[in-house]
Design a protein that fits this description.
The chain is an alpha/beta fold. Helix content is about 40%, strand content about 15%. It has six helices and eight strands, in the order H-E-H-E-H-E-H-E-E-H-E-E-H-E. It has a four-stranded parallel sheet with strand order 3-2-1-8, with helices on both faces. The longest helix is centred in the middle third of the chain and has 23 residues. The radius of gyration is 18 Å and the shape is globular.
Length: about 200
Amino acid sequence: MKEVFAPEARKKLKAMGLERALYAFDFDGTLSGVVARPDEAKMRATTRELLGVLARRVPVAIVSGRAVADLRQHVMGIPARLIGNHGLEGIGLGPEALRAARRVCKDWVRELKDPIFGPRVGIELEDKTYTLSVHYRNCPDRRAAKLSILQAASSLQPQPRILPGKCVVNLLPPGAPHKGVALVELMLEYDLHRAFYVG
């Protein structure tokens, strides 16, 4: 891993500041701290202020696993482009693709209820309409909880794309874009050749 503020990296950052670029940030664990419950996440006042200053000077996007409606509440007043559900929302996918993702997630919710929530305490299913997040931060045995979630997810049809995170397993419909795809789409839309992503 390369440190972003190491001397060589600082030169690149400085050069990037001289060119037009997209600045993108994840929300959880980046703009906000990691918290026990997703609804407790919030930006510090200094982070909000600095992000607002940056967004008024250059193109800024927040690319998150959260739904766009959820993100909007957290970043109100900051002129940033919001990309939600790991890239499913905010990059111009057609209504049919979103309807298909919603249908898949509804089916998965029904299938996951018993195998995950029956035997385990502290597992929480977050239904974000187009993707699902299964949190296990509050489980007494996190390792067993994660294995239980992965086992249940492996039996889902259609097979989800599984994105593990910090005490969370994200389930995306097959073929759904990811944050990297969203970033490239935004660069094309803004006609930019450089992006700086923090996440």
